[in-house]
Amino acid sequence: MIAIFNALVALVSQMVKKAGLVFGKAGNMNPASLLVVLVRYRRTNFTSFMKSHREALKIGLETGNYVSGVCNYYSLMSDLITCACGPYWHFTPLAEGCTRMECHDIFHHTTARYLGAQKGNDILEIGCGYGEIGRQVAKISGASVVGLTMANEEIDGANERIKRAGLEGQCRMVQADYHHLPFESASFDKVFGIYTLKYSSNVSQAIAEAARVLKSGGSFVSYEILVSDKYDPSDKEDRTLVENISYSTCMPALWSAQAFREAAAAAGLVLKVEEDLCSKPKERQWYCVFEDTCVFHLLMSSWVGRLVRLGEFLHILPKSFSDFYETCLVHPTTDFVLAGRKGIITGAVMMVWEKP
After folding, report:
1. Do 62 and 125 share a domain, yes or no?
2. pTM of the model
3. pLDDT at residue 261 above 70?
4. Among 143, 232, 261, 300, which is most buried by a count of CB atoms within 10 Å?
């Protein structure tokens, strides 16, 4: 049985080599990432991780507090996503003829432009992960950027990266919850969040806090995964796809654009820009980062799932890895593509508000 499993793994490896799809400097997604995960995390306690994941999700659904679930999720997934996908986790428009990493570089400049970031500005990035976007904004504009995250692992990793980038004078990290920002009112010229507020169960409070710490005339910029007007909660397929995205990442239900508009207006912010960056000519859809590679098809494949379960049965893969694979790898990856194709979620909407 072990020989059969090893032969199947070898077959997948050959498929990867023949396809020539190896994760490299271009930053393109590829099936080799799956093999990297298998090797790198063979000794991880997935049983404990999945138990904590479900317990935290239950608490979130009952209380609306998803903080412990998000922290638990990223205690493992921060490193895994970086290992498999590179330093940038969010979706961007995919410009024709550009690699994924080149598209991210374009996006960094786009973010700095929408922020109006300038040298001398004090900027806050909420829910920043390892602070990659904030560091890029700092390098592009010369501004000072504070990155705020809840996860210990991300604080440590971000501080190392700030040092490696030589940005100690411009960037620093703070551990806190963006629903309760530990800053004085009117402390920042700009505040922004990239794929941040999807983790909030109280978007009104989160945006109100961002508005509170903004100076008069300052901007709040949000780039999010949102439920579109096409989403029909009474449609079983629509509801399943959207719910899977939230449940697999231990976050609350995705917000609609209208919920953001209403929360910002209630906080006294004035909408200046709302634009789907993928609506521009020659910009391909954000979910194509998965759809254009073998990764999506491998994750959709039932025989790959059976191979994973066989590896766990033979104790080649760690206990509960198949549960983790199905819950956190197959979902939400496949759900993003399927929901994106249906147009029921959007992943490239940029919103800019100003504080009077």
Report:
1. no
2. 0.80
3. yes
4. 143
